[in-house]
Design goal:
Order of helices and strands: HHEEHEEHHEEHEEHHHHH
Number of domains: 2
Structural class: alpha+beta
Number of strands: 8
Distance between the termini: 77 Å
CATH class of the largest domain: Alpha Beta
Shape: rod-shaped
Strand order of the largest sheet: 1-2-4-3
Length: 321
């Protein structure tokens, strides 16, 4: 099977997986989101263990790197196949050492010294996210473990899938803090926090520190806006042309009707002059028609005379009926 290009969502995750925060409090905040959105806490003989699962090898490596950097303890990596063909891989990062797991859960505010881990693995208080930099790290961790972004060439859509409404509301609150219009929708048994506006997704990539992806998205947005602008202009010009053609056809019909019923010489000199000119020059604009008159008449003057001819033709039709 040939090489498959990486999706835009995959490119964003690859970039964010490479990014390493320096302050320990931000590292803990990002790990806290990864535990909350993509981990299980298990009870073992002498305490707890933490198991992270992801389909992205770069994300798995980052989790292991953060735990080793933040808590000085190596982790175990396990790879297993999934799906009907067995070609999909699930990467598991295990923290089996109970002391390291306890330190991790305590630091992430998912457990206090005298309590069990919180049931939904949400931070028990806001201390872990008191700074804006930590809130950004939490969003980044949540996206890495359970988020996705659509291909911007097709449409704009950012989402993070949460297992409970409480998690979705917690994450929504952090996004709203940065003035994002984050909404929640239920999808089967999950709760999805999503953003659909292109400019907001650009800002969100900036907050998560995905600057390469941000530039790529901005380039796509600019090209789409140029294409849309050109399409609008072409559509507008086409509509104007259609209106002009329709008006000209009606004008010729009215002139021919007068000619066939009472004759053009029944019109005043100024109306007969414009009627003859219009009949002989069906494709020219009103402005060009006006320049053919002697003396020349402006566009509004030509329009006024043609409207008068139309009224006369309509009156003749009514009288005939």
């Amino acid at each position: 099977m040939g090489w498959m290009p990486m999706s835009f969502s995959g490119e964003v995750k690859e970039e964010l997986a490479e990014y390493t925060v320096e302050p320990r409090h931000c590292l803990i905040a990002e790990l806290s989101a990864m535990i909350c959105m993509g981990a299980r806490v298990i009870k073992n003989r002498d305490g707890y263990g933490v198991i992270f699962s992801t389909e992205n090898i770069a994300v798995a490596r980052k989790i292991g790197r953060y735990i080793e950097k933040g808590f000085g303890h190596p982790v175990q990596y396990v790879v297993r196949c999934s799906g009907h063909t067995g070609k999909n891989h699930i990467y598991t990062v295990r923290v089996d050492d109970s002391k390291t797991a306890a330190d991790l859960l305590l630091a992430a505010k998912i457990m206090t010294p005298d309590e069990e881990p919180s049931k939904d693995l949400l931070p028990k208080n806001g201390l872990a996210l008191k700074n804006d930099c930590c809130k950004r790290a939490f969003i980044r961790g949540a996206f890495l473990t359970s988020g996705s972004i659509s291909d911007p060439e097709k449409f704009y859509h950012f989402e993070i899938v949460c297992s409970t409404m409480e998690k979705a509301q917690f994450l929504q609150g952090i996004l709203v803090h940065f003035s994002f219009d984050a909404r929640i929708v239920q999808r089967k048994k999950y709760y999805v926090v999503y953003i659909k506006e292109g400019e907001q997704i650009v800002d969100l990539l900036n907050i998560m520190m995905a600057h390469r992806a941000l530039l790529n998205l901005e380039n796509v947005r600019i090209l789409k806006e140029v294409r849309n602008s050109v399409n609008r202009q072409v559509n507008c010009e086409t509509a104007n042309l259609n209106r002009t053609v329709s008006a000209a056809v009606k004008q010729i019909e009215d002139i021919n009707y007068i000619k066939e019923t009472v004759g053009l010489d029944s019109l005043s000199e100024s109306l007969m002059e414009i009627a003859v000119l219009r009949a002989e020059n069906t494709e020219v604009s009103l402005k060009e028609l006006g320049q053919m008159l002697s003396p020349p008449v402006g566009k509004s003057g030509v329009n006024h005379r043609l409207r008068k001819i139309s009224e006369i033709a309509d009156e003749l039709r009514q009288n005939k009926n």
